[in-house]
C-alpha cells in the first residue's frame, strides 16, 4: 500500500506539474506583487492620507534598524522549519508504532530531533523578541527626537499651530502606539506571506498537491477580511484619536484650573462635562474593540473551516490509499500552521492601524510649515527697537493691533499701559518673535526682525512675565538656565539683588529644592526667583510684562527697585496696568482698542488730560481710598 501511495502521490504531482508548470512562478510573483502593491504608499499629499496596510514613510524611519525587521522574519522562518521537522519526525514515529516497525535507533533519533527543534524554537522566539525590541527602541528614540527638533524649529510660535498637550501626547502615547507596529506588525506582515508558501511547497512535494492547494487557497480568504476591517478602522480610529486627544487636553485644563473651579463652585459642572467626554471616549473605544473582535471571529471561522477542509481531503486520500498514515498525521499537525501567521497578522492589524493613525498625527505635526527666519545674528550691546505701522490679528475676524508705531531707543525706559485686551502683551510676544504673521515692520537696529535668527533674538532680549515658569529641581538648576556658566558668587549676587539670598540660605542654599512651577514658594518669592534668573541672562533688552501683577506689596516694591536699577544700564520695555509704576518712564504709550491713543512722558500725558489722565487719577483715588480704609480698620 505504501508503494501504491508513493506512486499515486508522485504520479498525481507529475500530472499536475505538467498541466500547471508555471503555477509556482505565478503564485510567487503574485504574492510579491501583492506585497509591493500593499506596501506602496499611494500618495504623500498634504492630507497625508494612507491607503495601504504599511506606511512607507514609517518604514523609511527604520534606517539602520531595518535589519532587525529582517532578523525577525528570519527567526520566525527558522522556527517554522524547526516545527515542520519536528512534526515530520513525530509522524514517522507514530506511523512506525502503528506498523510495529519501531526501532531503538528511531526512538533516539526522534528524541534528539525534538530536542534540537525545540531548542531552535525557544531561541528563535527569544531572538525574534530581541530584534523587535531593538527596532522599536531606535524608532521611538528617532521619532521623539524629530518631534523635539520640530518644536525647536517652530520656535516660540509653535502654539499657533499645535497645542502643548497634543505635542506631549504625541511624544508619549502616540510614539508608544508604534511599538507593536515596528516590534511585531511589520515582520508579521511579510512572514504571513512567506509561511503559507513554505508550507504549500513542503506539503506539495511530500504529501499531496490537492491537500496543499486546499489549504493554500483557503488562507487567502483572510486578507479580504483584513482589508474590510481596514476600511472600517480608518473611520473609527480617526474618531477614536480625536476623542482621546480632546479628553486628555480637557482633563489637563480642568486639573490646572481646579482651584478656580472650586472657588466658583463650578467643579460639579466640570466633573459632569468630563464624565460626558469620558463616556463618549468609552463608546468609541468599545466600537473599536467590537470591530476587532468581530474580525477575529470571522478569521477564526475561516481558519478552522480551512484547516478542517484540508484535513478532510487528507483523510479521504488516506482512505483511498493515496497517502500514508505518516503523511496524514503531518497534514493533521500542519493544517493549522497554514492559517496561524495570517490570523496573527489580523489580530495585530488593529494595533497596527492604531500605530498608523498615531503616525499620521505625528507626521502632520512634523509637516507643519515652519516660520521663515533669517540668517543674521543680532550682536550689539545697544539695540534700538522700532514698530512701524504694525498690525496683527490672531484671527482674521478680530484685529488685535492696528497701525501701531512705537520707538524704543537704546538705554531707554519705555512703558506700555492700557486696559486688558488692548494689545500690550501681544506687542511683547511679537518683539520676542513668538508670532510671525504680522503686517508692518518690527526692526532691531534698522533691520527687520525676520532677518535675524530666532536664537539670536532670544540671546539679546529677556522676557519676564506675570507667571514665569519655575522648573522642578533646585534653585541652582533654575538660575543656571539664565546663565549656564554662572558661578556660585554670580548666582548669590543675583539672589541678593532680589532680596532672596537669606531665604534660600536658610533652606539649603542653592541646592534648596524647588517643586513644579515653584509651588513651595509664595507668589512673590517665585517672581523674584524668576527675576534673579533674568538678571543672570544679562541681555541688552529686558521686557517686563505685568511682572508685578501677582505679587504682594513688599515683593512689588523690591521688583520695581531692581527694574529701575536695571534701567540705568539696559533697555527696558515695561508693561503694567498699575500706572503709578510707570511714572518714571522716559516715554509712556497708552494703547486703546489696539491703537496708540496717547504717547509722552508722565508730565505730558497728565497735562493733556486725556484717557491716561483719567485712568491715573482714578487709580490714585482708589489707592488713597484703600489706604484710608486700612488705616481706619487699624
Textual characterization of the structure:
The protein starts with a helix and ends with a helix. Strand 9, helix 19 (553-567) and strand 10 form a beta-alpha-beta unit. The chain is an alpha/beta fold and 634 residues long. It has helices at residues 2-19, 23-39, 56-60, 66-98, 104-154, 164-176, 178-206, 209-219, 222-256, 258-263, 267-319, 325-366, 424-431, 454-460, 475-482, 488-497, 501-505, 523-537, 553-567, 602-608, 611-633; strands at residues 385-395, 398-408, 413-417, 439-444, 447-448, 461-464, 473-474, 513-514, 541-545, 571-575, 587-592, 595-600. The longest helix is centred in the middle third of the chain and has 53 residues, at 267-319. Helix 4 runs antiparallel to helix 5, helix 7 runs antiparallel to helix 12 (325-366) and helix 18 packs parallel to helix 19.
Question: Keywords for this structure?
Answer:
single chain; 4-stranded antiparallel β-sheet; disordered N terminus; 21 helices; 12 strands; 634 residues; disordered C terminus
What global shape is seen?
Answer: elongated
- End-to-end Cα distance, whole Å, is 117 Å
Strand content: 5-15%
Helix content: 55-70%
The secondary structure category is: alpha/beta
Radius of gyration: 37 Å
Uncertain segments: 1-51, 627-634
Chain-wise SSE layout:
Layout: H1 2-19, H2 23-39, H3 56-60, H4 66-98, H5 104-154, H6 164-176, H7 178-206, H8 209-219, H9 222-256, H10 258-263, H11 267-319, H12 325-366, E1 385-395, E2 398-408, E3 413-417, H13 424-431, E4 439-444, E5 447-448, H14 454-460, E6 461-464, E7 473-474, H15 475-482, H16 488-497, H17 501-505, E8 513-514, H18 523-537, E9 541-545, H19 553-567, E10 571-575, E11 587-592, E12 595-600, H20 602-608, H21 611-633
Helix pairs in contact: 4-5, 4-7, 4-12, 5-6, 5-7, 6-12, 7-8, 7-12, 8-11, 8-12, 9-11, 9-12, 11-12, 15-18, 16-18, 18-19
